[in-house]
Amino acid sequence: MNSLIRHKGWTWGFRTTILLYFVVLIVLPILGVYYNSFSLGIGSFVESIMDPIAWKSVLLTLKLAVIATLINVLLGTMIAWVLIRYKFPGKALLNSLVDLPFALPTAVGGLMILLLLGPGSLIGGLAESMGFEIVFHQPAIVIAMVFVTFPFVIRAVQPLLEELDASEEEAAYTMGAKPSRVFLQVILPSMSPGMIGGGMLAFSRALAEFGAVVLVAGNIPGRTLVSSVFIFGEVESDNPVGAAAVSIILLTLSFLILWLISLLQMRGRRS
């Protein structure tokens, strides 16, 4: 087997297959988006970018994605802490349920939110009686984003907590440090790379979410119309240039986020 792996022909074929897979499934679709954006000229591209409805959808998506990311960083870190530091009945089940958003179709997630918080549900009806509407408003979009990005921070923080040297905490306690100080100066710095990296991945994923959001968003420009739903509407309206223009904004943001994550990981390895 080892002689087969070392064979130059086999190695060349393996590398070629990987490169073709990468080009066909990733590079070509991205180039297609950029090509369609400029297919009618730069003027048409600029006009699509400067469309007030398009910009409002992008800004709204950014705002709601930031809110969802902050919620996930806070809750995800707390859940990762509980799963690593405590033993309790049902821990294995809870740990397996963390990955449910990865396995569940996002449209099903949106339907779950709609049925749970919609006008005909108990929670939705109670919220309406208090003058607070959830579904088809921004809170439902944030909940959908939180649901689909829920595992990122947890799975990024868990291994860091597992690798944390207990002797450092014990030494801090021995020197008379309070639990809050131990957490802020010993534990938090060890968790922060996972919190930042997982938060960035959650933010990037929330920007592009469609399946869960489209079922609970009201699609009102400037209020509940997010970028992914706007792109879908432009495609349905036979305006691929407008859809591709907004897609480029999201693609660029995602590339920047991935680049920042890679930069942080490289600095973490060097330190």
TrEMBL record:
The keyword Transport applies. The chain crosses the membrane at residues 20-46, 58-84, 104-127, 134-154, 182-203, 210-232, 244-264. PROSITE patterns: ABC_TM1. It comes from the Bacteria. Keywords: Cell membrane, Membrane, Molybdenum, Sulfate transport, Transmembrane, Transmembrane helix, Transport. It is a multi-pass membrane protein. InterPro entries: CysT_permease, MetI-like, MetI-like_sf, ModB_ABC, Sulph_transpt2. Residues 58-262 form the ABC transmembrane type-1 domain. It is found in: Cell membrane; Membrane. The complex is composed of two ATP-binding proteins (CysA), two transmembrane proteins (CysT and CysW) and a solute-binding protein (CysP). Belongs to the binding-protein-dependent transport system permease family. CysTW subfamily. Part of the ABC transporter complex CysAWTP (TC 3.A.1.6.1) involved in sulfate/thiosulfate import. Probably responsible for the translocation of the substrate across the membrane. This is Molybdenum transport system permease. It comes from Paenibacillus phytohabitans. The gene is cysT.
